[in-house]
Amino acid sequence: NDDDLRKTIINSGIVDYIFFIFETRDLSSITAPYIDVIRQLTLQCSDEVRLLLYSKKPYPYLLRLLNHQDNQVLLYTINLIVYILVSGSNTTSFSSLHPHFDQMSRYGGIEKLYSLFKRTEVNKQIKDLTAICIGELFNNAELPHSMRTEIISHLMSIVGDSNAWTQSQSKIQLGNLAQNSGIYY
């Protein structure tokens, strides 16, 4: 079973060592293959595998990578964050605050995600995934006024995206945000 192999790899110490690299190395020396090793563990796997990765407390390391200048590193990082966030949502009650909200807040993750969203040099896919991450985090929490207009406008702009997953997630996030604010988009 691929999930069993993924769990073995996550528990083997390899992930911990890669997180150590993310924490200690100069950002410019961290290339896409480093983050792709971890990202590959989360592709087409169960929520259980992603939550095992979450148990390693990845956010401080991944959030540091959001300051990277390489779009491929940023894309792999934001992909990984969104996979972990969605798994967190899938395994908790719809009526409760996102289970990773407090940890992301503690590490300044919401501000770092919003800062990435506002960067002009990032590509559309990164911007789309970042808006989805922010929407995911604010499931059952009101989106701060300072980011509400931009995030909601962007999510609305990708409702008809050519990527089916992006299209679906934008609709889900808009629905969740509408319920939280009492405003329907």
UniProtKB/TrEMBL annotation:
Gene3D superfamilies (alphabetical): Leucine-rich Repeat Variant
Protein name: Uncharacterized protein
